[in-house]
Amino acid sequence: MTASGVCHSDLHVRDGDWPRPGPVAMGHEGAGIVEALGPGVTTLRPGQPVVLSWLVPCGDCPACRRGKPWACPDSPSFRHRLLDGTTALKTAEGEDVLSYCGIGTMAEATVVPVAAAVPLPDGVDPGVAALIGCCISTGVGAVLKTAMVPAGASVAVIGLGGVGLSCVMGAVLADAGRIVAIDRVEAKLTTALSLGATDGLLAGPDRAATVEALRDLTDGGPDVIFEAIGLVSTVELAIEAMPIGGTAVLVGMTPVGARASFAVFPFVDGSRRILGSN
User: Fold this and answer.
1) For residues 11 and 26, what is the distance between their CA atoms, to the nearest angstrom?
2) Active-site annotation holder among 7, 64, 72, 101
3) Which residue is catalytic, options 4, 9, 166, 277?
4) Which of 134, 135, 154, 166 is catalytic?
5) Are residues 16 and 53 in the same domain?
6) How many structural domains comprise the chain?
7) How far apart are CA 186 and CA 195, in angstroms?
8) Domain for residue 219, yes or no?
9) Radius of gyration for the alpha carbons in the chain, expressed in angstroms and rounded
10) Cα angle for residues 126, 190, 5 (degrees, 5° grid)
């Protein structure tokens, strides 16, 4: 391993928000250099830099056969083990140590399925490469694949951590007309503006005031609004800020069991949409 990210999903597991088996080597954003190949592996070479993917589809379920590997219910990644059910790591007493999502990037070395190791060109910064495995693909993918934001659309992004900033970059790639970045930290707005956001909105404790300010910046509300934190309050903010015909894309992951609420009549009456994006 040459680099590992620390995603908020790792913190959810550490803090008990997401029940997971253990003991487990955490980390699901990582980059490394291939040391050795298993039997029959011909698509990689020793010494090759790779970025790791936290989801390895089974390739045989109905979702995989339909070309939707992201919906695979039987990925070995969910069992935090290798394809044959074993683990590469052990405790000093010989007890199995799981690898989170089957890759366990917070380790000096790891063993992964070949499908989890994606070749990189030489010279890519490992710290950047590690984030491609989850953070960047999550944010950019939410814009380009889940929402399929059309050129010229107005976009807002709530929460400017790694995923939120990746949503901003995705909106730039989509050629969005207006990109409003929203956070409670001024420095994060500055970073978002440097990455292509057209406007920064400093959110305050008054949700209604934030919604009103966003509507003023986007002629009544953004066409697509991305929630990239995973807080009930900001999920509800995203839904409330949608204009008629608008779309809210929920990207941030809440603790298991968290519930949000919204007013049903304006949601239906305005033909609004909520999309989940993993």
Assistant:
1) 9
2) 7
3) 9
4) 134
5) yes
6) 2
7) 15
8) yes
9) 20
10) 25
* Amino acid 194: pLDDT: 98
Q: Is 9 a catalytic residue?
A: yes
8 is catalytic: no
Query: Can you tell me the distance from the alpha carbon of 29 to that of 114, in angstroms, rounded to the nearest whole number?
Result: 16
User: Quick count: other Cβ atoms within 10 Å of Cβ 254?
Assistant: 19
Question: What domain range is 96 assigned to?
Answer: 3-124
- Tell me the residue ranges of DSSP E strands in 146-206: 154-158, 178-183, 199-202
- Alpha carbon 43 to chain centroid, angstroms: 27
Can you give the pLDDT at residue 74?
86
Q: Respond yes or no: is residue 7 known to be catalytic.
A: yes
Claim to verify: residue 40 and residue 111 sit in the same structural domain:
yes
Question: pTM above the 0.90 mark?
Answer: yes
Averaged pLDDT in 10-residue chunks for the chain of 278 residues = 93 91 94 96 95 91 90 89 90 93 94 94 93 95 98 98 97 98 98 98 94 96 97 96 97 95 96 96
